[in-house]
Design brief:
Shape: globular
Largest sheet: 7 strands, antiparallel
Low-confidence stretches: 1-14
Order of helices and strands: EHEEHEHHEHHEEHEHEEEHHEEHHHH
């Protein structure tokens, strides 16, 4: 849960300089023989830090998880190289302890009981306050930070971004299996994560003062330990000049992660640009956003979703929603030469489906079933 990309306005002083972007990815550690989740994060993290640097690899809530934290990047090439470097280095460290590094929102093959909570004071405090909610976690997400220097601008941009979170979740769903069973969902991770009282869509925020008041109230009521535990799908970072989009499952490969992060950067850029025109975001009720996110988690990109970027919230086919999204992000993507990469990924999702669809295809066609799913996802160690 360590933020990644620091600094940098979404429109830097040099017009040609792309906005800053950083990515955090969470992975499950699976035993190389059984392919089941295994609790070896501390030695794996220690080994990975020796190769990748301390700030770039961290343990997570459960001892079966590892998180990578990218450097601050500006170009697509920098970002993809960094994601590949971190994935490969973490996979090499996992291999030293007979583990696979698996980018799936949930452990495909399950644990023998609840995952041990990492023995750190923060996580012990979470366990004391939230009880079984903590022990049901161990989920793996992809968080994207985009530099936005002004807090007021960031808060207003979040209002414009919140309506796009259901579509982003649908596009990135990558957790159909959990503990050896098909959940029937495309993103079971998002369902498990939504158990936290501070998780889900953000409220409509009047201004930065209102944002600070809401966060203070969440902390005061005990629903959050501190501002960093405001687990909204999109939020101004608690202590960095960034907007953080947290809605996605961890994605299957580095190329897909890069394309998704570039899409997020373009969407944030569009939102900031819209704020600067004085246009207000539609005040879509939080409950409708939550319902749309449930629909995205259940079905992924199949069927329809409410168009929650509009006041009317009319149902649209996901393909039509992607077209609406593209109208908004294409100028930003073209400005930095990212349009072809992102359009290719979106086209692939529409033709071949999400990571969840990929997992199910592998399980259905391979006699090894879910073991084959783990092998297909596992990051190749050097």
């Amino acid at each position: 849960m360590t933020p990644a990309a620091a600094g940098g306005s979404v429109y830097p002083t040099e017009a040609a300089a792309p906005p800053t972007v950083g990515v955090e990815e969470e992975f499950v550690l699976a035993d190389r023989q059984s392919r089941s989740a295994v609790h070896r994060s501390l030695p794996v993290v220690s080994a990975a830090r020796a190769h990748l640097g301390g700030p770039h690899v961290t343990p997570e809530l459960a001892e079966s998880q590892v998180e990578t934290v990218s450097a601050v990047c500006r170009t697509a090439a920098e970002l993809e190289a960094e994601i590949r470097r971190l994935r490969t280095g973490a996979a090499a460290a996992a291999a030293e302890y007979d583990c696979l590094l698996v980018p799936s929102g949930m452990a495909v093959l399950g644990r023998s009981g609840p995952p041990p909570v990492l023995d750190q004071e923060r996580y012990r405090a979470l366990a004391r306050r939230f009880g079984p909610v903590v022990h049901g976690q161990g989920v793996n997400a992809c968080h994207v930070h985009v530099g936005v220097a002004e807090r007021e601008e960031a808060v207003q941009a979040v209002n414009h971004l919140r309506g796009w979170m259901p579509l982003l979740l649908a596009l990135t769903a990558n957790s159909p299996y959990s503990d050896g069973a098909d959940t029937g969902y495309a993103s079971w991770r998002s369902m498990v994560w939504s158990r936290w009282p501070s998780a889900g869509p953000p409220p409509y925020l009047r201004d930065a003062a209102h944002y600070a008041w809401v966060v203070d109230q969440l902390v005061a009521t005990g629903a959050a330990l501190d501002p960093a535990m405001v687990y909204w799908h999109v939020r101004p970072s608690a202590h960095l000049p960034t907007i953080e989009v947290r809605v996605a499952d961890v994605l299957p490969d580095a190329g897909t992660t890069t394309a998704y992060a570039l899409l997020v950067r373009a969407l944030v850029g569009h939102a900031v640009e819209t704020v600067r025109t004085g246009e207000r975001a539609p005040e879509v009720p939080e409950l409708l956003l939550r319902a749309a996110c449930w629909q995205a988690a259940r079905h992924g990109t199949t069927g329809t979703l409410p168009a929650t970027h509009m006041r009317e919230c009319v149902p649209m086919a996901v393909g039509r929603l992607i077209e609406e999204l593209w109208k908004r992000v294409e100028p930003q993507l073209s400005r930095y030469g990212d349009d072809r990469r992102v359009s290719a990924w979106l086209r692939d999702v529409q033709l071949a489906g999400t990571g969840a669809a990929r997992q199910r295809r592998v399980a259905e066609k391979d006699q090894d079933g879910l073991r084959a799913v783990v092998d297909d996802l596992a990051v190749e160690a050097p």
